[in-house]
Amino acid sequence: MRIILFAAVLLYGGLFQTPPSPVKNEQEHGKKEAKPASETPRSTAEPTSPITTPISQPSPNAQTNETKEKPSSWPAWTDIFWPTWVLVIVTAIAVWAALRTLGAINAQVEEMRETGVQTDKLIAENIAQSTSMQKSVAEAARLASAMEVAAKEIAVSSKAATESVVALRERTAQQMRAYLTIMVGGASFQERPKNLRFEARPLLINCGHTPAHKVMYKARAAILPVPLPSDFDFPLTGEFMGSSILGPQQNNVLAAVVDAFVPDAEVADIKTGQTRALYVWGLVSYRDVFDIEQTTKFCQVIFWTTDTNIFGTYISRHNEAT
């Protein structure tokens, strides 16, 4: 702004400054030259009468014509008039350039101002979006936490339900499945003339409420000491026999015959079980209504009170079931 004011002052001074008039310069120069001539030193001599000398005056017409003719000519190139105009033109160009620069600066400032407004709007929008996103994230985190809690509760409930189902199934299976047990059945003692050896016939009974499928068994009979040695391992050989279905509360007879005849003199002692007796043991395998494999192990010792009456007992080992 100071540059513009300075350029305006220079322009104003150059436009209104006029070069000095040649006539005026000559008149002033004539006055300067005539003034010393009019001043005469005072003489110490006696005064003399003044002599009047007529002074010729220039002709008014000639002076007027000269004055009219001289302003119509341009000053010399060495006169200050021309540098002044050059300075004025340069100043005008500088002012024009300064005005254009100022306009460009104002445009840039306005553009920057508009850009700043837009930037403020974008910042405000971004802040609003960020706040909204933060709220959304917080809400999502809250929902995720709630879902996690619900998932844990569902998992606990599911586990409890599964355990309940398993327990119910086990309870139902325990109540409804087939239970096969071995009861003391019939037996026959050795009669060599009839080619009969000692034989035990345990009674297999289904005590459950559903049928037993694929009922198979292995059984063996032998004359062994009384009491039974503790190291006896109840050996079983051969394949499983049978593959039948035994319904609830039904029974079946198993059969096991000793491998060889004993001396006839020992038959009576074996029948009473004084030192030796008839033992029968085995393993029953079957599948219940839930298609689960079950087993029953048994071992009995048989005595005769009379030739037609028998009784038996279970020993403390090898009597168990699933």
Explain what the structure shows.
By secondary structure, the protein is α+β, with helices and mostly antiparallel strands. The protein folds into 2 domains: 88 residues; 142 residues, Immunoglobulin-like, CATH 2.60.40. 45% of the residues lie in helices and 23% in strands. The protein is built from 5 helices and 10 strands. The strands form 2 sheets. Strands 3, 4, 7, 8, 9 and 10 form a 6-stranded antiparallel β-sheet that branches. Strands 1, 2, 5 and 6 form a 4-stranded antiparallel β-sheet that branches. β7 and β8 form a beta hairpin. α1 packs antiparallel against α4. It is rod-shaped. The two termini are 112 Å apart. About 17% of the residues have low confidence.
Sum this structure up briefly.
With about 325 residues, the chain is α+β, with helices and mostly antiparallel strands. About 45% of the residues lie in helices and about 25% in strands.
Main features:
single chain, 322 residues, alpha+beta, Immunoglobulin-like, 2 domains, 6-stranded antiparallel beta sheet, 4-stranded antiparallel beta sheet, 5 helices, 10 strands, 45% helix, 23% strand
